Amino acid sequence: MLESYSEGRQSRNSRNRPLIWKNDIAAWEAEYDAHSPDVLRERATADDVSAEQAYEFVRIASDWELARYRLSLVQDAVENYETWTSDPSSITV
Where are the domains of the chain? Predict the structure, then answer.
């Protein structure tokens, strides 16, 4: 069985991670002919889908959402870098 997305990607170079996440999402879109994780979750509930296939669809949907979330964090950091480095009080913890 494949390793979990959240566990298996940790050893890769952190500078390459956003590109890896984008490539993973593009691969899932192509492989599963789906435009979103929700489509995969919907497929998992179909009557003609085996338990093994359903598990795979749900796992990939979760990995896809995690990749999108991580990409959004990187994008937010890039967009706000100037503000955060020039005004440390703008950073909330």
Answer: 15-86
- As a residue count, the chain comes to 93
3-class SS of residue 37: helix
Rounded Cα distance, 88 and 38, in Å? 38
Residue 20 and residue 12 in contact, taking contact as beta carbons nearer than 8 Å: yes
Q: Which residue type is seen at 8?
A: G
For residues 29 and 60, is the Cβ–Cβ distance under 8 A? no
Q: Tokens 């913890």 correspond to what residue?
A: 93
Q: Cα(32)–Cα(79) distance, rounded to whole angstroms?
A: 31
Q: Which residues contact 36 (CB under 8 A, 6 or more apart)?
A: 64
Taking every pair of Cα atoms in the chain, the longest distance, rounded to a whole number of angstroms, is: 56
Residue pLDDT, tens place only, 26-77: 999 999 999 999 999 999 999 999 999 999 999 999 999 999 999 999 998 8
